Amino acid sequence: MQFDDESVDASELEDQRGGGGLGRGLAVGGGGAGILGVVIYLLVAVLGGGGPDSAGSPLSQPGGGTSGDVARRCNVAGAIDQYDDCFVLKAFNEINEVWGAQFARSGQTYTKPRLVYFSQPVRTGCGTASSQVGPFYCPPDRKVYIDLGFLDQLQRNYGAQGRYAQAYIVAHEVGHHLQTLTGTEARVRQAQQADPSRENPLSVQLELQADCYAGVWSTLANNAGNVTIGEADLDEALGAGQAVGDDRIQAQAGQVNPETWTHGSAEQRRDSFLTGYRGATMASCGTVPHA
């Protein structure tokens, strides 16, 4: 994939890498929505593996400075291709630019989420989260939380390979922000509280719609010239969606139980992304919750 320019805007970035000290093994509380979320946290516990903090990942760039520090380092020729924190930030910029233009065309105002880089347990509006919880979006504070070391673990352990796989992950999380702005997230939480037996199926609906929104963004960004997306890039996004399907993740732990799914199967996630990619409108992703 190729961006239309190399400028990076860090005004919505909070770099909290290296600023932990909250302890370990903590999971995000209620209200968080993510591409992997607690599913990966539980898998790590089942397999007895270390979290991304202990993996020595080359993707965890030195951090903990100000957004200005990141902007100065990333606004250098070649930095987007060289550094993963620069690439993710640039993808985040383009995702927000496309959705801002799309909302404006329909007479609505788009409020950007904030992006938080973290590598140690972090306090959020949804509770305290360790990096083992994976990338997630927190509706109460309207922030996308990304642990760059975990993206490396996704590539190495789950087959989510390639740059566009990373962009898909960020676009999925911003998809949850769209659900907050449109009231979808609140309706789903209310429905879950009204009928706890539907908690997991409703969660799956929410996650699949976020996958669909990621597909919509891909087409809109490509058509607008923000990002040039080829067939190989599309394959990377589809591969990432399949790699983090609940059935694929549970299979690694040795037991697949559809009743416990919260994000959808590999096939569902792939199909949802394609639905948005082909439909290219938020309406093509349907409404949630649905019967």
What distance lies between the first and last C-alpha atoms, to the nearest angstrom?
37 Å
Q: Please, how many helices?
A: 11
The major pleated sheet works out as: 4 strands, mixed
Q: Let me know the number of strands.
A: 8
Question: What is the global morphology?
Answer: globular
* Total of domains: 1
Task: Please report which band the strand proportion falls in: under 5%, 5-15%, 15-25%, 25-35%, 35-45% or over 45%.
Answer: 5-15%
Spatial arrangement of strands, main beta sheet: 2-3-7-6
Can you write the helix and strand succession as a string?
A: EEHHHHEEEEEHHHHEHHH
What's the Cα radius of gyration? 18 Å
Which blocks of ≥5 consecutive residues have pLDDT under 50? 20-30, 35-64
Mean pLDDT: 81
Structural class: alpha/beta
- Percent helix range: 40-55%
Summarize the structure.
The protein is α/β, with parallel strands linked by helices and 291 residues long. 50% of the residues lie in helices and 8% in strands. The strands form 3 sheets. A 4-stranded mixed sheet has the order 2-3-7-6. It has a two-stranded antiparallel sheet with strand order 1-8.
Structural features, described:
This protein is an alpha/beta fold and 291 residues long. The chain has one domain (2-285). It is built from eleven helices and eight strands. Strands 2-3-7-6 form a four-stranded mixed sheet. Strands 1-8 form a two-stranded antiparallel sheet. Helix 6 (163-181) crosses helix 9 (231-243). The protein is globular and about 50 Å long. The protein starts with a strand and ends in a 12-residue tail after the last helix. 49% of the residues are buried. Residues 20-30 and 35-64 have low confidence and may be disordered.
